[in-house]
Amino acid sequence: MESNSPTSCEDYAADISSIRQAQVRIEPFVHKTPVLTSETLNSIAGRKLYFKCECFQKGGAFKFRGACNAIYSLADNQAEKGVVTHSSGNHAAALALAAKLRGIPAYIVIPKNAPKCKVENVKRYGGQVIWSEPSMESRENTANKVLQDTGAVLIHPYNDGRIISGQGTISLEFLEQASEIDTLIVPISGGGLISGVALAAKAINPAIRILAAEPMGADDAFQSKINGRITKLSEVNTIADGLRAFLGDLTWPIVRDLVDDVIVVDDKEIIQAMRLCYEILKIAVEPSGAIGLAAVLSDGFQQNPAYSECNHIGIVISGGNVDLGVLWNSLEK
Fold first, then answer.
1. N or C: which end of the chain has fewer CB within 10 A?
2. CB distance 18 to 37 below 8 Å
C-alpha cells in the first residue's frame, strides 16, 4: 500500500501520482533496465548489492526518462516550436533523442568544455548545438536568447517537476525487480534523479533508507544538508562531470526531507569503483554512474554503525557515457 505522506505533499514539485502517470506516458519509449548482482561484489561489500543499470537506457543514461516525460507532456501547440535546454552532459543527449522521437526541434546549449562523447551524442540524435562559455551565467543567457528567437519551451535538466517525475519511474521498476531492497544509494548533483527516486520509493516503502552519493570536490548537497539551506560552492573539482551541478529550489525540499544521509567519496574511490564495474560487472560506466558503488565500499559507509542494518542495497548506475580517452587515463592512475 502506497503512503500519501510526505510524498504527496503539495510543497513538492512531484508526487507518486505524477510518477505513476509518467510511467504510463514513457513506457512505449524507454527501456526497462536490468538489475544485476554479483557474489564477488557482495563479498567485498559485506552486503547484498543490486545494480539498476541505467547505463543501458536509451541515450546511455537515466536522463532519457525525465526528458521523455517532459517532451510528451507538452501539448502539440507547445511542442511544435521545439524545446531548449542548457546542459554539458546526458540531459542534452536525452532531450535531443526524445525530441527526435516526437519529431520536434531540440536546441541544446552546450558549454565549450563539455565532454566530447556527450556532444557527439547530441549531434547523433539530431540536436542543434549552440555553444556557450562554461559559466552558468553564459549558459543561461544563451538559452534565454534561443528561447526568444525560437519560441521553444525550456526543459531544465533537473529543476522541473516533469523531469523529477520521469526519473522517479526508476524506483517503480527497481522495487518491483528487487522488492527486498532496504536501502537505495543514488548519485546526487542537481537533485532531479534522487528526488524522483526518493518520492516514489518512500511512497512504496516509507521505511526504506535513501542515501545520496556525492563527490568530495562537489559536495554542495552534503553542505546543504548540514546547513539546512541550499549551499553553493565557489568551485567544483571532480572527475564525475555529471555531478557538478547544484541543487535547485524544486529539488532541495525533497532532498532536505526525504534523503536520509549524504555519503561523500573522493575521485580515487570513484575510479576504483569504475574499475570494479568494468572488471566484475562487465559494464561500461561513467564516473557519476560508479559513485554509488564507491559510496558502499568507502570507509565512511563501512565503518559507520548507522548503516549496519543496510543489508540489501540498491545502487543506481546512472549512466555509461564516458570519454574513452579520459577513461583510460583515469584507470591507469
1. N
2. no
CA distance 294 to 20: 31
Provide the b/e sequence for 305-316 (b: ≥16 CB within 10 Å): eebeebeebbbb
Cell of 15: 508526487
* This prediction's pTM: 0.94
**What is residue 88's predicted lDDT score, i.e. its pLDDT?**
73
Residue from 213, 261, 255, 210 nearest 230 by CA: 255
**Architecture label for domain 63-154:** 3-Layer(aba) Sandwich (3.40)
- Judge whether 330 counts as a catalytic residue: no
Domains 16-61+160-323 and 63-154 equal at CATH topology level: yes
Q: Which pLDDT score, from 0 to 100, does residue 190 have? A: 96
| Active-site residue, from 48, 52, 58, 63 | 63
C-alpha cell at 236: 567544483
What is the chain's length?
Answer: 333
| 224 is known as an active-site residue | no
Q: Which of 18, 87, 88, 171 is catalytic?
A: 88
Divide the 333 residues of the chain into consecutive groups of 10 and give the mean pLDDT of each group: 50 97 99 99 99 97 98 97 91 96 97 83 94 87 95 96 99 99 98 99 99 98 98 94 93 98 98 97 96 98 97 98 75 66
**Is the bond preceding residue 6 a cis peptide, omega within 30 degrees?**
yes
CATH architecture of 16-61+160-323: 3-Layer(aba) Sandwich (3.40)
The DSSP element (H or E) to which 177 belongs, if any, is helix 161-177
DSSP 88: S
| CA trace torsion 223, 259, 244, 108 (10° rounding) | -140
